[in-house]
Amino acid sequence: MPPPGTFFRPFLRRATQRANVMGTTQVAVAAAVAGIGAYAWYLRSNNTKSEKPIFSSFGFHSLRLDSTELINHNTKKLRFALPDASKPSGLGLTSAVLTVAFPNGRWFPVIRPYTPTNDLNEPGYIELLIKLYPHGKQSTHLHSLQPGDTLTMAPIKELAWTPNQHSHVALIAGGAGITPMYQLARGILHNPSDRTRVTLVWGVNRDEDVFLGEEFAEMERKFPGRFRAVYVVAEPEVGSSHRKGFVTREVLEGVGLGAREDGNKDVKVLVCGPPAMEKALKRKGSGVLAELGYRPDQVYSF
């Protein structure tokens, strides 16, 4: 008999392919919903301890919400306790979790991927930053959770990151798409054997949406010359230090992200954001990244 979950893996791959983190609607695949929902329902309470970290292999698990913290006007930090407080989650760099919930007594599950933002080596818990979207089924449900409630989730592997494979990586994020970029940037910079240079460009609506600004500022202080963060704000406050507008060709060229520039010959570009932003960046032949000289194989979308 195949191991639990083997039958569902092809569905999960389709359901999560090209998904945007933290609440986008692209992730759900109707053909897989019933099967995944039934499997998740069956395994909700199956949290038996093992010698391995909980997410070191495929499987759905129900984790208890330990605490919540309001980060800004529409973003909450949710900390979930792992069943073994002495072990980390087992998630690797660029991994995410696929969350499964049945809000308001729904018959079919709501399925969304989210990227943990805590240090993956820390034992005992994982943290998710959840942005509340208008009419967002999963984000609304997650914002309503209280300590003691549970959430079913399973691990998702994304890009397999190899230290020093690229001398420079460009992270281009929009809104809540920042979470996989934050996880990857921190993982690269805190790995003493990885010397990859990191440039981050983050587009948001308002100044208060830069909810990881302090964390990125600390990275810039600790790793001068290796990490740079640039924020582009659609509607900045009066006197804002951030540039106004959107993530455009001019913005990317202005921060040294032209593919033809010295030091960018093997740059890897990672993109995560709203569909409209990704379309503008990646449109075949006429997108911003193509105009800057990037080949399709240099670009990856979370």
Automatic annotation (TrEMBL):
Name where it's found: Mitochondrion outer membrane
UniProt cross-references to Pfam families, sorted A to Z: FAD_binding_6 (PF00970), NAD_binding_1 (PF00175)
Q: Where are the transmembrane segments?
A: 21-42
EC number of the protein: 1.6.2.2
Q: Which residues bind FAD?
A: 112-114, 129, 131, 137, 139, 179
What catalytic activity is recorded?
Answer: 2 Fe(III)-[cytochrome b5] + NADH = 2 Fe(II)-[cytochrome b5] + NAD(+) + H(+)
List cellular component terms (GO).
Answer: mitochondrial outer membrane
Domain (FAD-binding FR-type) ranges: 58-170
Q: Out of the domains of life, which is the source?
A: Eukaryota
Q: Show the InterPro entries listed in the entry.
A: CBR-like, Cbr1-like_FAD-bd_dom, FAD-bd_FR_type, Flavoprot_Pyr_Nucl_cyt_Rdtase, FNR_nucleotide-bd, OxRdtase_FAD/NAD-bd, Riboflavin_synthase-like_b-brl
Q: Which cofactor does it need?
A: FAD
Instruction: Name the predominant localization.
Output: mitochondrion
* Molecular function via GO: cytochrome-b5 reductase activity, acting on NADH
Q: Name one GO biological process term.
A: ergosterol biosynthetic process
Question: How does the protein's chain sit in the membrane according to the entry?
Answer: Single-pass membrane protein
Q: Does the keyword Magnesium apply?
A: no
- Which keywords has UniProt assigned to this entry? FAD, Flavoprotein, Membrane, Mitochondrion, Mitochondrion outer membrane, NAD, Oxidoreductase, Transmembrane, Transmembrane helix
The keyword Flavoprotein is assigned to this record: yes
Family named by the database record = Belongs to the flavoprotein pyridine nucleotide cytochrome reductase family.
Functional description taken from the UniProt entry: May mediate the reduction of outer membrane cytochrome b5.
PANTHER family registered for this protein in UniProt: NADH-CYTOCHROME B5 REDUCTASE
Question: Could you tell me what this protein is called?
Answer: NADH-cytochrome b5 reductase
Tell me what organism the protein belongs to.
Chaetomium globosum (strain ATCC 6205 / CBS 148.51 / DSM 1962 / NBRC 6347 / NRRL 1970) (Soil fungus)
